[in-house]
Design brief:
- By secondary structure, the chain is an alpha+beta fold.
- Helix content is 46%, strand content 12%.
- The protein has one domain.
- The longest helix has 20 residues.
- The two termini are 20 Å apart.
């Protein structure tokens, strides 16, 4: 789990918005779920796993957590 110092920073909020507005984030009508391939496209080294959920609020929370983990690893120099 990421440290709470990353959550709700301007950098974190901008990344969440970037993911949510990305062409790689979509609602799939056949599976009736929101999903994104944003992280695997942005940086193959960051394998967060499947990002999909049928509830938008839960999906957004998953994106927020993934963004915080990504930014934390970036701060530690583990991701460029």
């Amino acid at each position: 789990m990421p440290t709470t110092s990353i959550f709700n920073t301007q950098r974190h909020q901008l990344m969440v918005m970037e993911v949510m507005q990305s062409a790689f984030t979509e609602y799939n009508y056949s599976t009736e779920a929101y999903s994104t391939d944003f992280f695997s496209v942005k940086d193959a080294a960051f394998d967060y796993g499947e990002m999909s959920f049928d509830d938008l609020e839960v999906f957004t929370d998953k994106v927020r957590i993934a963004c915080a983990i990504y930014l934390e690893r970036q701060n530690q120099g583990l991701i460029k």
